[in-house]
Amino acid sequence: MNSGKTTPEPMRDVALGPLFQTAAAHALRYRSHVAEAPQRPSRDFMAMLATFAAPLPETGAEGPAIIDQLARDAEPGLHAMTGPRFFGWVIGASHPVGVAADWLTSAWGQNTGNHVATPAAAAVEAVAAGWLLDLLDLPRECSVGFVTGATVANFVGLAAARHEVLRRAGWDVEAQGLFGAPPISVMIGDDAHTTVFSALQFLGLGHDRVIRVATDAAGRMRADAFRDAIAPLSGPIIVICQAGQINTGAFDPFAEIIALARAKGAWVHVDGAFGLWARAEPELKGQTGGIEQADSWATDGHKWLQTPYDCGYAIVRHPEAHRRAMTIAASYLPPAQAGERDPSHYVPELSRRARGFATYAIIRHLGRQGIAAMVARHCRVARIIAARVVAEPGIAVLHEVTLNQMLLRFGGDGAGADDLTRRTIARLQADGICFAGGAAWRGSQVMRLSVISWYTTEAEAEIAADAIIAAWRAVKAGANFRDWER
């Protein structure tokens, strides 16, 4: 029965100009002033939940009004992740050229499954994949999957590894699963990132069923410990190395480890979420020596390349193993012929965002030299901050700063240093001039800084160092001097 109400025609229901212009105006205002605002949210989760909580709307509202309210309500709960002094986690700043390309990606609304459905998106991915291999100087025959981030990139690389080591043992894991399969030995450094353990869990290899290899003071796998651990192993083996330890930025000794792994027929995967980008900077590239001999690599675009979230890359030396581990086939999906590339053959999803456009745009904008200069600048900024703060009595930098990561500790080695470090972090965050978080390292509380925002310059390094020193002095002034000195 007709209720008398009519359904508006979709294109007439929403006025595109006012809607998109409203969103663009809010985005421009936010990004133009983020450096001046506190580098932290002004409201916490519970406050934001109270702001947004409401019954399900029974009727709709005008688009521009919704966008206005969304911007007004959300901004107090946003971290300044696109700001110049945000060092809390390894989070890139979403370069404006990438953001603009990502706006187009959303407006185009392309579901990047195959080359017939989205010729432009598939072609751009193919070109950007080649550029990435060139920038990172990895074997040019590698296949590249554009995924959500390093977590899924690790999953994809290790799925290809699982396929190949079991194929060599005469087992088809995609068809038969793991029931009755030859056991796989997985070797990993003691200070590997938690997301790698998640990938092992998702693949049915177990996050605890691994051989953990001892690490040195900076979190690198020790080659001698690896040699001892791999010596008695036989059968399928997967070795997981790390490029850029999340706390110290350290790199595993790839050449030694990979040579030992090769002798056992192992597949070597590298978690290089941010550290793999050291290969884009000539003076830093030496820290990654031997990494190009691995079988697969995981890295992020939304960290050092500054693409908008989400974007990561799964890179595999053996494209056939990559495709067999990932390909989704159906009669309604057009096959890829010679020279054609289906994006879905290299990632877990059939339906997904066209991440290649933003990657392509940023690489076109910065070029090889611009990317190298950015990576070098961030590492230089990290060294400037470290040199400034370590000159202040009571502040220690716990390792040599060789990349963009650093750990600070406040109040010496006494019993009260953990509390003083926590309080200094809290004071720094409350001041809002820069943002850094805390972590546990070797049984002690530390302040952890990651310098990776496109907007962070040497001048911002001085402001950040002053803020850290001021926070420490304020905490120290409120504490018993002899307590923190002990």
Automatic annotation (TrEMBL):
InterPro entries: Aromatic_deC, PyrdxlP-dep_de-COase, PyrdxlP-dep_Trfase, PyrdxlP-dep_Trfase_major, PyrdxlP-dep_Trfase_small. The keyword Lyase applies. Coiled coil: none annotated. The keyword Membrane does not apply. Its cofactor is pyridoxal 5'-phosphate. Belongs to the group II decarboxylase family. This is Pyridoxal-dependent decarboxylase. The lineage of its organism: Bacteria, Pseudomonadati, Pseudomonadota, Alphaproteobacteria, Rhodospirillales.
